Amino acid sequence: MSDDPPRPDATASSGAVGVIGLELRGDEPPSRKQIYSWALWDWATQPFNTVILTFIFTALYLTTDRFLPASLQGLAEDDPAREAGIADLTSGLGLGSTIAGLAILLVAPVLGQRADAAGRQKLWLGIGTGALVLCTAGLWFVEPSPSLFWLGVALISAASVFGEIAAVNSNAMLIGIATPRTVGRISGLGWGFGYLGGILALVIVVVFSVFDWFGISEEGGLPFRIIALGCALWTVVFSIPIFLNVPEPSLGRPERRVGFFASYGLLVKDVIGLYRNPVTRPTFWFLLASAVFRDGLGGVFAFGAVIAAAVFGFGFLDLVFFGIAANLIAGVSTIIAGRFDDRFGPKRVIVWSLTAMVAAGLAVFLLTDAGKTVFWIGGLILCAFVGPAQSAARSFLARVTPAGREGEIFGLYATTGRAASWMASGAWSLFILLTGRTAFGILGIVLVLLAGLLLLLPLRERRPGGALRTR
Question: What is the reported pTM?
Answer without folding.
Answer: 0.78
